[in-house]
């Protein structure tokens, strides 16, 4: 016989006092009475619940959402195939779309679980900004947005799946500089997509162009990814509301000295191409390009 955890739905042995996955308390530690959600006292012996276990369980009634596994399905449409990457606030999964047979997509997840409320608010704003910006764009060097939705304090963005590797990984594999002809091919595409973004009304400033945000497909096509800190240009604003960007690739105005505009992305493009051609990481000595 098994007991289903009411928090994460994982199966546990009939005698388990705590869920083996999320550590939610399942039975009273004094009399072994099976507990229900929101209970604060054991209904049989009156013992106060939510006591700490040796492995710090999730308190009774507190939501825990386990990491998704292959076979899990969201919205009765997207079936998880495998994880593609993981970060501090979520993960990216390869999924299959039930509406179009065998179509594979990338599902980007952001979770508010275990995050400071202020930090969660900032992260959610960036997540929604990315979804809104990409949904209105259509360019060969940008991933297409398919869908976005939220479930149980987790937020999802479904996008075109881009196979390949980042320019950052390509540089690491090369152990230094890349061939000029190869870099030229990337540069032409990056110039084209940045020009497209900057010609929008109002212009869209990417603000975080760097090797880690450039996907290289097997066919040589480049895709610009991660619009988390991108924003619309605001005429008349003297400077950005907060400093954002990656040291070495971020222009001086991104450190609070002015408003970022199209020139901000051009600076980052120059720093990125310099890195690719020379093999020298600009983050080691920002603003210096020997």
In short:
This protein is 22% helix and 21% strand. It is an alpha+beta fold.
Describe the structure.
The protein is an alpha+beta fold and 290 residues long. The chain is 22% helix and 21% strand. Helix 3 packs antiparallel against helix 4. About 8% of the residues have low confidence.
What proportion of the residues form beta strands (DSSP E)?
15-25%
Low-confidence stretches: 51-64, 233-242
Q: How many structural domains? A: 3
Report the major sheet: 6 strands, antiparallel
**Helix fraction?**
10-25%
The run of helices and strands is: EEEEEEHEEEHHEEEEH
List the helices and strands and how they pair.
Elements: E1 2-4, E2 11-13, E3 73-74, E4 78-87, E5 90-97, E6 103-111, H1 117-135, E7 145-151, E8 154-160, E9 165-166, H2 167-174, H3 180-198, E10 204-205, E11 214-216, E12 222-224, E13 231-232, H4 262-278
Antiparallel strand pairs: 1-2, 3-4, 4-5, 5-6, 6-8, 7-8, 9-11, 10-13, 11-12
Helix pairs in contact: 3-4
């Amino acid at each position: 016989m098994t007991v289903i955890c009411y928090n994460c739905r994982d199966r546990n042995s009939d005698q388990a006092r705590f869920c083996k996955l999320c550590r939610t308390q399942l039975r009273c530690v004094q009399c072994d009475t099976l507990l229900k959600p929101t209970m604060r006292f054991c209904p049989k012996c009156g013992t106060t619940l939510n006591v700490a276990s040796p492995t710090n369980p999730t308190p009774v009634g507190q939501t825990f959402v386990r990491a998704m596994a292959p076979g899990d399905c969201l919205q009765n449409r997207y079936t998880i195939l495998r994880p593609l990457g993981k970060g501090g606030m979520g993960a990216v999964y390869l999924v299959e779309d039930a509406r179009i047979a065998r179509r594979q997509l990338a599902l980007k997840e952001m979770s508010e679980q275990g995050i400071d409320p202020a930090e969660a608010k900032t992260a959610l704003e960036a997540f929604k900004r990315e979804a809104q910006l990409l949904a209105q764009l259509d360019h060969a060097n940008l991933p297409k947005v398919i869908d976005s939705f939220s479930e149980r304090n987790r937020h999802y963005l479904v996008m075109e799946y881009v196979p390949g590797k980042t320019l950052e990984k390509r540089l690491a594999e090369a152990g230094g500089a890349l061939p000029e002809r190869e870099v030229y091919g990337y540069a032409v595409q990056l110039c084209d997509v940045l020009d497209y973004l900057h010609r929008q009304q109002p212009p869209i400033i990417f603000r975080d162009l760097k090797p880690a945000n450039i996907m290289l497909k097997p066919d040589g096509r480049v895709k610009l990814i991660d619009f988390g800190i991108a924003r619309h240009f605001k005429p008349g604003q003297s400077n950005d509301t907060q400093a954002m960007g990656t040291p070495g690739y971020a222009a001086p105005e991104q450190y609070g000295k002015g408003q970022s505009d199209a020139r901000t992305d051009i600076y980052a493009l120059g720093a990125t191409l310099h890195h690719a051609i020379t093999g020298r990481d600009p983050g080691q000595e920002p603003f210096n390009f020997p």
